[in-house]
Amino acid sequence: MPAPSDDAELLTWSRRAWGALEPVHVLGYFADEVREAYVALGLHPRLSYFAARSAAFGPVGPQVPIATFYVFAPWLHEKALPASWEVAPPERVQQARREGMQAVLERAVGSPDVGELLELAREVCAGLTTPGRPLHAAHAGLDWPADPVLALWHAATLIREHRGDGHVSALLRAGLDPVESLVVGGLFSGNTDFVRSTRGWSDEQWAAAVERLTDRGLVDGDALTDEGRTFRQGVEAETDRLALEGWAHVGLERTRRVAELARPLRESALASGVLPGWISSRG
Predict the structure, then answer these.
(1) What is the chain's Cα-based Rg?
(2) Where do the domains of the chain lie?
(3) Would you state the pLDDT for residue 280?
(4) For position 10, what pLDDT does the model report?
(5) pTM value?
(6) Distance, CA of 25 to CA of 51 (rounded, Å)
């Protein structure tokens, strides 16, 4: 059954539910415990991100993450892959990721009873489809962890990657290339410094993207124009719509329940000191 994309209330609550779960997932991108697990394998601290997120695909080269991650400069992928697989195979990288996540989840959120939330989250995941969703499909093929809190992280990962695949589709439809996507998204979310320092594009490439966006009337100096903000809000709304199917599968009331049950975990994750401040504005 097609997702009821005109259901404004479900769209609102699905975004809140995703926003409540998202910090549980993204802890792994900032936590020392996870980075140390990769370094213990022999991976480069910064480049380990590309191996860890790509590992679900198997021993791929740089082309697959260039396509699916979208916003990172190709040279970063090319430095990371396939060289990382000579250090540790994808299965071992996946194991290290889960071991590191187990440690940071214990520190950041403790050992809460997540039984009801996990059951609901797994049902949301059961409603997610894979066609056109390569990162989600790859991670959906992995085994579920036995530990409930780690299993909840896995559910949040599936929901996040499904949404991310849809977001790339929305960026393409909006005519934003990778650097333009970062410029607009950074100005919209207040994380420009972070994305400029981590996505690998040169100052010249960044300036050229700003010039193109200025010509489109979306950017003026170091800020979005009114048109640019409306434009970016439209990309976000399209992303929400494309992410709706799992939430439509469980319905409005259970989507609200996910948001309610996940809220304390979100608050714990944000209070842990692991995540940068700009993440608190999401969801």
Answers:
(1) 18
(2) 8-276
(3) 63
(4) 97
(5) 0.94
(6) 17
